[in-house]
Structures are given as C-alpha cells and as structure tokens.
Records
---
Amino acid sequence: MQQWQGNSNEDFAKLVNEFEALPALYRHALNDLQNKIDVIKTEWQSRDGFSPIEHVKCRIKEPKSILQKMERKGYGFSLENMEQYIHDIAGMRIVCAFVKDIYRLVDHLSTREDIRVLEIKDYIAHPKPNGYQSLHLIVGIPLVLLEGTRWVKAEIQLRTLAMDFWASMEHILYYKFDKQLPSHVAEELKEAARAADELDQKMLRLRREILELSEGDSPSSGQH
C-alpha cells in the first residue's frame, strides 16, 4: 500500500479523523443494497425454484485507504472529491453460478427505480490483459435523510464461481510476490483464466442441455 506523501503525519491523522464518520453513511447504503439483493434472491427462488445468486460479500473501505487512493490518483482532499471520484467506498461482490445469470441480474437492476446504474465496466466481454474477468457496476442507492434523499454510490462486482476462484488466487499470488509477478507466473495465470472461462462455457452448455431434457420430460419443470 502506498505510503502517505503529505506534509506530515499529523496532517494525515487529522484528515483520517475528519473522514472517520463518513463510512457510516456508506454502510447504511450498503445495508440497503444488500436487503434489495436478498429480496431478489428470495423472489427468484420462490418463482423459479432456484436463485442464480450463489453468495454475496460486502465491505466498507477504511478511511485511511480512501485517503491514500485519493492521493494516488491526484485528487485534492475534500469530501466533494471523495464523493465524486471514489466510487468503491461501499463495495459488494455478487457471485453467480453462470455468466448468463450475471447479465440477467444486471438487466434487472437497470430497470429498478430504487437503484441507479451509473456505470458499467464489462471485463467479461473484454477481459483485462492479465486475464481478469468480472462485471463492475457503479450504482446509486437512495438514502432518505433529514435534509432529503441523497444518492450514495457503491460498486458491485459480479462474477461466476470460476472467476471468483481465479481472482482470489491472483490476489494471493500478487501480494506474495510483492505486486511483481514473474513473467512465467503471469502467463500461467492468463492460461488459468482461459481455463476458467472454458469451464464457465461448458457448465452453461450442460445447464442448457439439462433444462432441454427436463422440458421434454415435464413441461411444467422447464421454467428456469
């Protein structure tokens, strides 16, 4: 993690103290977002007999990390800059079984009035050079406060189980080698990413085949 390059440690400590209360606002927004996702899971489970969402993880970025990210990106330290430029203070990761379910969920979120999809970065259709795949959303969540409704930003990362496994392993290796992976390790990771993608595609084909067989045996069971 980058070290503080400000005027003094005292200045940094003062800024951290000023930002200490801010995560509470984002935590409320994240809790609200998680409740919405839980309702979606329940509805899909009730209607279709299964939920495409495997599991959900949430986290709030620490004030010190927020300040260091602002410094790294060259933004002046102000609440306005933090709200405008730092989109991942509230973060959620949603892991789905299949790629198709990720896009299904994104389509649903885009139609809701209580969530604003502000930005989409599709690293599934366009993987990063290192092989990373995921779909990132920046969303706005409405909080009704004393002064009125305030839309708070959050980042949602959507992955399949295979993508999540790859990303977890890449993160472990990345820090084990102090963020400088040997070239042969980086190449092996790219190959593993391709293998994860092939696994996702194979499981999607198997799912389609199973559902088609199920429809042939019992029309009423083919609602997935």
---
Amino acid sequence: MEKGKIIFLNGVTSSGKTSIVEAMQDYSDPFFYVVANDLFENTIGDKHLQTDYWKYLSEAIIMMYHTAKLFSDSGKHVLIDGILVERPELTPHYEQVKNIFDGYPLDIVELYCPMDICRQRNIERGDRREDQSDEQNKIMASNIHYSYSVDTSVNTPEECAEMIITFLFKSRHETLDTNK
C-alpha cells in the first residue's frame, strides 16, 4: 500500500495554521486527517502541564508524529498543525522530525506571516498573549528545508489551501505525467 502524504504546516501561533487546516479539510479529494499540537496537549492532565509543561508536551508531540506515521502507513493523508521549536526537551527538534519521518512522504510547509500581523491576530483572538508569536519565532528551528511556503498575510486560508494542494498534489503529478 502506498503511504499517505504527511504535510507539516509549520508556523507560529496566529500564523493561520488551523484556518488553513480547516480549509484543506473542506476538500474531498484529497482527503486529510489532522493531528495537532493543541489536540495532543489535551491528552495531558492540567496538573502535569502546570508542573512541567515542556516535558509532557514534548512527549506528546513525539507521540503525535508517530500517530501521523500510522495514518500514512494506512495510505491516509495527514496534516500536522504544529511548530518546529527548539526547546531543550525536543532539541534537536527538526532533526528528530526528519529521523522519525525518514522514508515517509513528508512535506514541511512554511506558513509565513509578519510578526506585527500575528500580534494583532493574538490581540483579536483574546486567547493568546500579544507577544506569544514573537516568543515562538525566537525559538523556531532554523535551516528548515521547506517544500513550499505561503504568506498568510496576503492570502486567505482558502487560497493558501488551494496553493498547497495544487503544489503538493496537482503540479507534481502533471510534471510526472509529462515526463512519461
């Protein structure tokens, strides 16, 4: 059985990850399952998160990656709504991701959004600290090899979803078909 694609949407909070995930899930072909940092954080009791947040979250994030592999092994496409941050509990995070997904069809997509726009989105949302995106940006892994990048400050979530799907599914197949 052919493995399903694993698409890691990497960006700071309020960069548009969840909105793009929702737009991509509106498609029937391709169909996507989703794993997300927030979803896996909810598997941890509040007591433990308050005691040692990064220890437990880091363990859950690694389990999230293995869950994504299970979907892929079953021929299902999966979106990862996450962020590659370098914390002592995960370091080297990006290298771990590459090792975990070695031999899998992994595409990491950069969700770019200027920090001032992320800050404004955080304020409007009300459930994030104003500087939360800035804090995450400072600890984001560097030298990430992105398959594709979208600017969420100039494109709607629906436009970004279409661009990602076109690039990862349609344009590659057309290129392959013309090379036969």
